[in-house]
Amino acid sequence: MFIKDIFESKETVISLEVFPPKPEVPMGDVLPAVHALAKTKPSYMSVTYGAGGGNTANALEVASAIQNDFDVTALAHLTCVGAKRENIIGILDSFKNNNIENILALRGDFPQGVSFDKDRMDYKYAYELIREIKAYGGFCVGGACYPEGHVENPNKEKDIDNLLYKVEAGVDFLVTQLFFDNNMLYSFLYRLAAKNISVPVTAGIMPVTTAGSIKRMCAMSGATLTPKFRNMVDKFGDKPEALKQAGIAYATEQIIDLISNGVRRIHIYTMNKPEIAGKIMENISSIIS
Ligand code: FAD
User: pLDDT by residue (tens digit) across 197-232?
Assistant: First the structure.
């Protein structure tokens, strides 16, 4: 089913993100974890894709299992940084052959230590990949957006102007970068409305449950930490079980506040941890039914 049709058919849509193992690493416990996440009955599940395309086979295997074996609609991420057009077309063929109908089209981050001639790449920005997939046909296509601005672009207004390229390319929906302060999302939604961008937006929520992941995630995403979040980490940072419980509660509160304020679509970055996503789904079970 197309994700845009899922949005039409449900009042509240909760989706989950998983990641495949790195290239050449066996599936190990990834598929059982993904299966356990599928059993929490999300509206759909997305599978990340390594920039540079090194783990295409694993990403395809996980997305195919979700779509064909676990009875959940799959959203396959696809990045285009450094990719050749013929490879992208080959991957679209593989998605088609595996019944995958939804793609999150991304540029990806430039791999460190590799130099690119940015003017000679087949795709420079994500909107060009969106345009390619739309021209290929038969896919519902999403794109990324950034409530606090993309880390490479200090000008938030310009960042939203750049989103218009994705809209013009025919993007069907947008998924946000993670954020810890819901006001960031609300003000972003107002700014989109002011630019007449009416594409459905899904809010990305990351339950933070380990102290080690916080610095890395903030550096990658540029997300602002709220005082409440900082206090939580200060208090429980060296008590893993307490931090896990507090992180689940923080994410649950964020989600309840979003739904209370009319945000109908929420994407949970699960880090392949069924027990954490499962607890959040349980916490909001009556709210989303
Ligand atoms: P773009 O939309 O191309 O934007 C990149 C930068 O270029 C931005 O600063 C933008 O403002 C600017 N820009 C865009 N268009 C133009 C234009 N026409 N002219 C000038 N400037 C322009 N990465 C992965 O490697 N794998 C994943 O699976 C993955 N999943 C993600 C899922 C979500 C929901 C999000 C939010 C991010 C994900 N990422 C993933 C990270 C993403 O690839 C990076 O944030 C990357 O740096 C930007 O990707 P993009 O698709 O937003 O790029």
Answer: 999 999 999 999 888 888 788 888 889 999 999 999
274 to 26, 35, 36, 259: CA distances (angstroms): 19, 9, 6, 22
Sign of CA dihedral 18, 284, 216, 79: positive
Residue-range domain boundaries for the chain: 3-288
Architecture label for domain 3-288? Alpha-Beta Barrel (3.20)
pLDDT digits (tens, 9 = 90+) for 22-47: 888 889 899 999 999 999 999 999 99
The token pair at 285 is: 């079970």
The kind and range of the H/E element at 125 are none
pLDDT (mean) for 123-133: 97
Q: Print burial letters for 17-42: b (CB count within 10 Å at least 16), e (below 16).
A: bbbbbeeeeeeeebbebbebbbebeb
CA of residue 145 to ligand 1 center, whole Å: 8
Candidate of 15, 19, 107, 121 to mutate for ligand 1, largest count of ligand atoms within 8 Å of Cβ: 107
pTM for this entry: 0.97
The reply to whether 132 belongs to the active site is no
